[in-house]
Each structure stands twice: as C-alpha cells, then as structure tokens.
Design brief:
- By secondary structure, this protein is an alpha+beta fold.
- The protein contains two helices and five strands; from the N terminus they run H-E-E-H-E-E-E.
- A hairpin with a 2-residue loop joins strand 1 and strand 2.
C-alpha cells in the first residue's frame, strides 16, 4: 500500500512538471483535478488560446479541450483570461481519487 501511495504522489508531481513545462511563463494553474488519467485544470493567462495551444503540443497530454467559456478580467491594467481545460494524461500510472484535487477547491 505504501509503494502504491508513493507511486501515485510521484505521478502527480510528474504531471505538474508536464503542465508547468507546457504552459507559457505568463500563464499559471489555479486548480488541478485528476482521476484515472483524466484531468481538468483551471488556468489564468494573458491569452487562454495560446496556453491551450501550448498544452496541445505537450507529448504527454491528449484530448486537450476547452471546457466552457473563457472569462476575462482586467487587473492592474492587464487583461487575464480564465479557462477550464480537460485533458487525458498519458503519463506513468494513474492517480487515485484521494489525490484529486491536487490544487484548488473541491467542486
């Protein structure tokens, strides 16, 4: 059981690495939910379409798709988009329900 727990944590950290490597430096994650290799992230970026295109280019992600509307707001004179994105992770192992959500609030 301990080995499975440790493996799921390493998998979750690997996924965070994939996501942060793929996203532009100007974008950031605000939430991450993962279950059985299917995930949803919430991102904030100056241009959500650029961030989604970058995620689409990541070899470890598949079926990257916008989930719902993109909302925008101006903060400190700069526009930021907020988007929810679904994906399938082709990474090592699967993450158990106890690992989701990794960031953000439970919905």
């Amino acid at each position: 059981a301990l080995r499975a727990f440790k493996g799921s944590r390493n998998s979750a950290i690997s996924l965070l690495g994939v996501l942060t490597d793929a996203l532009p430096d100007s974008a950031y994650l605000t939430a991450l939910h993962l279950r059985d290799g299917e995930g949803t992230i919430e991102i904030d970026a100056p241009d959500a379409s650029d961030a989604i295109a970058a995620l689409n280019d990541a070899d470890s992600l598949a079926n990257v798709a916008l989930a719902g509307a993109v909302t925008s707001e101006v903060m400190a004179g700069q526009r930021r988009d907020h988007a929810t994105v679904h994906f399938r992770w082709k990474g090592h192992g699967s993450v158990t329900p106890s690992d989701a959500p990794l960031l953000g609030a439970t919905r």
